[in-house]
């Protein structure tokens, strides 16, 4: 359910007042703490030009993906808020995360966003910027609050042929430019490019037991008894390509389409990847519930992948683009070796 902001001061006016109050309260010491306090920066984010006179001091991340990216870049002291936590924050971020105010446990409204007096807003997906959520990017631009969207969510605005991982790495580099943290952002992108390269080392040797390309179904969630799987537009399709497999639902032009168990059975995948979302706590989220659903279905339970336990469990949140996704890519590459799909 979406929560609407209460009628009152318009979002644009309220943010303008908050931003003005924030700027007058910024001290010389605060400005000196920035990596590059006097440098201006300009970037393109999802078709919109964003300009900065100085690195942001009060950034708000509207989702967990954006939050963890900023924490990985060491920017917690320049964050004024976070929202929409889906799972537990990993141990390596917990100390930094504790310094950041939570403005909303779920999706933030415009009222909650303006209470943080942001000078920059970051989101992993464009659908967080709507009138009944945090406000549109146009509303934020009107009060000079730049709104960033991950390049992964708007590939049409980027170079043709750029992979989802490369779009993700470009996010790090763009954010590094904005915050004056290019070195740290560049190092992170290089480290993760190396992980991607390593995961793809054996792609040419991947083969199913019949000699063809191994196929995989990614089971993200089970809701009201129906499976949600990775379609052709999400990150799992790219993960599959890197390791030499084929996403069995690549022909469906959605990130996470709802399908039927009969459709899963008809694709007859060589192996199945289960996204464990047990920390989110919804029915059907845990890996155990998904295993039980497959075992209880009269058709899917007969699949060789289920009978022979050719099932890989990964953190569900890492199947969506994030700073953690290369971890699951590595798990996938290793598991394919263990299951005998790399020769």
Beta content: 15-25%
Q: Would you identify the regions where 5 or more consecutive residues have pLDDT less than 50?
A: 1-38
Helices, by number, come to 13
Characterize the largest beta sheet: strand count, sense, and whether it forms a barrel.
5 strands, parallel
CATH class of the largest domain: Alpha Beta
What sequence of helices (H) and strands (E) makes up the elements?
HHEEEHEHEHEHEHHEEHEHEHHEH
CATH topology annotation of the largest domain: Rossmann fold
Keywords: Signal
Family: Belongs to the bacterial solute-binding protein 8 family.
Domain Fe/B12 periplasmic-binding: 58-343
Organism: Streptomyces avidinii
Task: Write a structural description.
The protein is α/β, with parallel strands linked by helices and 343 residues long. It has 2 domains: 11-196, Nitrogenase molybdenum iron protein domain (Rossmann fold, 3-Layer(aba) Sandwich); 203-338, Nitrogenase molybdenum iron protein domain (Rossmann fold). It contains 13 helices and 12 strands. It has helices spanning 11-25, 28-32, 64-72, 91-97, 110-115, 137-142, 164-179, 182-199, 235-243, 261-267, 287-296, 304-307, 325-338, and strands at residues 41-45, 48-52, 59-61, 79-83, 102-104, 120-123, 147-149, 215-223, 226-229, 246-247, 271-276, 311-315.
């Amino acid at each position: 359910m979406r929560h609407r902001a209460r009628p009152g001061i318009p979002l644009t006016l309220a943010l303008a007042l908050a931003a003005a109050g924030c700027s007058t309260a910024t001290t010389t010491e605060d400005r000196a703490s920035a990596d590059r306090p006097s440098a201006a920066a300009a970037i393109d984010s999802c078709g919109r030009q964003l300009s900065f006179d100085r690195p942001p001091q009060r950034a708000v991340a509207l989702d967990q993906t954006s939050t963890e990216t900023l924490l990985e870049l060491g920017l917690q002291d320049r964050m004024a808020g976070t929202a929409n936590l889906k799972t537990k924050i990993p141990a390596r971020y917990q100390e930094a995360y504790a310094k950041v105010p939570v403005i909303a446990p779920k999706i933030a409204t415009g009222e909650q966003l303006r209470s943080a007096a942001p000078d920059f807003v970051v989101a992993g997906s464009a659908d967080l910027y709507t009138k009944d959520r945090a406000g549109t990017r146009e509303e934020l631009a009107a009060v000079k609050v730049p709104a960033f969207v991950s390049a992964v969510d708007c590939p049409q605005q980027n170079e043709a042929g750029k992979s989802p991982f490369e779009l993700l790495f470009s996010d790090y580099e763009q954010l590094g430019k904005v915050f004056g943290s290019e070195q740290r952002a560049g190092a992170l992108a290089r480290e993760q490019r190396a992980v991607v390269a390593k995961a793809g080392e054996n792609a040419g040797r991947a083969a199913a037991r019949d000699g063809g390309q191994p196929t995989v179904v990614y089971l993200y969630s089970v809701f009201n008894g129906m499976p949600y799987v990775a379609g052709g537009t999400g990150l799992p399709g790219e993960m599959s390509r890197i390791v030499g497999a084929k996403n069995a639902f690549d022909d469906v032009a959605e990130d996470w389409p709802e399908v039927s168990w009969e459709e899963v059975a008809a694709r007859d995948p060589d192996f199945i990847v289960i996204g464990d979302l047990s920390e989110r706590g919804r029915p059907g989220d845990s890996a155990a519930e998904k295993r039980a659903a497959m075992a209880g279905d009269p058709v899917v339970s007969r699949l060789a992948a289920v009978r022979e336990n050719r099932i890989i469990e990964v953190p569900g949140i890492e199947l969506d683009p994030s700073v953690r996704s290369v971890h699951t890519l590595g798990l996938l590459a290793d598991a394919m070796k263990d299951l005998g799909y790399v020769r």
